[in-house]
Recover the amino acids of this structure.
C-alpha cells in the first residue's frame, strides 16, 4: 500500500459546528503532516507528528486541533472555524520527519459557511 | 514565510515542446524536491536532488541545482497534455526539519 487516504473528500460546515478530517497510511511512515492550501497558493505547513508526538505546530489557531491516535492515523479536529479557513487540507507522510520525500493524500476540500 | 520563489508563475506551451521552470531559494539547503499537483488534488513527488548534486534525470524530467546561485530548474521534455498541472519546488532550510514550498508554476500544455 503506497497511498495516503483522506476522508471526507468534501466537507461543508457552519461556524459553530465541530467536525474532523481523517488521514490514514499503511506505509510504515513515522512522520505525518497537515498542510493547508488556498487556491493558487502553495501548501502551508500546519502540524508535524513524528513517532506519534507533535513536533511542529506552525502557530496554528487553537480552533484546529490535531491528533495522532497511532502511527497510521492522523486526525484534524475542527471547531468554531471562520469562512477564511475554507481551503484544501492535505495530509502527507514520510519515512521520518524532516526533509524526506512526502507522500500526499488527495486532500479534503473544506468550506466554512 | 516562503523559502522558494518560482518563475514563471504561469507557462503555456504547445504539446511536444519543452517546458522549463525555475526556482530560487534564500537559505542553505540539504536537498531540493519538485512536486506536481493536478487541479484540486494532492501533490505528487517527482524528483529529489541533493545539495552536492548538480543535475539529475528521471524519464522526461531533468533537474539542475546551482547552490552558488541558490536556484534550480525543472525541464520537462516533449510535453504532453497530461503534464498540465502546477509544479512546486520544495526546500529544507538547514536546521528547519521541514519542507517549505515555493509559489509554484502553473503549466498548461495545449494540444
Amino acid at each position: 500500500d503506497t497511498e495516503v487516504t483522506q476522508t471526507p473528500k468534501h466537507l461543508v460546515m457552519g461556524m459553530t459546528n465541530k467536525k474532523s478530517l481523517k488521514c490514514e497510511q499503511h506505509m510504515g511512515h513515522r512522520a505525518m503532516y497537515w498542510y493547508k492550501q488556498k487556491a493558487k497558493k502553495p501548501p502551508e505547513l500546519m502540524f508535524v507528528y513524528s513517532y506519534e508526538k507533535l513536533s511542529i505546530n506552525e502557530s496554528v489557531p487553537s480552533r484546529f486541533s490535531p491528533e495522532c491516535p497511532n502511527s497510521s492515523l492522523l486526525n484534524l479536529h475542527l471547531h468554531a472555524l471562520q469562512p477564511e479557513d475554507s481551503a484544501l487540507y492535505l495530509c502527507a507522510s514520510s519515512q521520518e520527519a524532516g526533509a524526506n520525500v512526502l507522500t500526499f493524500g488527495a486532500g479534503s476540500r473544506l468550506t466554512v459557511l | 514565510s516562503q523559502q522558494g520563489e518560482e518563475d514563471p508563475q504561469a507557462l503555456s506551451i504547445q504539446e511536444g515542446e519543452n517546458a522549463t521552470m525555475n526556482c530560487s531559494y534564500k537559505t542553505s539547503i540539504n536537498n531540493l524536491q519538485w512536486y506536481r499537483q493536478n487541479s484540486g488534488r494532492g501533490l505528487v513527488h517527482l524528483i529529489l536532488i541533493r545539495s552536492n548534486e548538480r543535475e539529475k534525470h528521471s524519464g522526461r524530467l531533468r533537474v539542475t541545482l546551482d547552490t552558488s546561485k541558490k536556484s534550480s530548474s525543472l525541464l520537462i521534455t516533449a510535453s504532453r497534455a497530461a503534464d498540465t498541472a502546477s509544479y512546486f519546488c520544495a526546500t529544507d532550510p538547514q536546521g528547519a526539519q521541514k519542507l517549505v514550498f515555493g509559489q509554484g508554476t502553473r503549466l498548461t500544455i495545449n494540444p
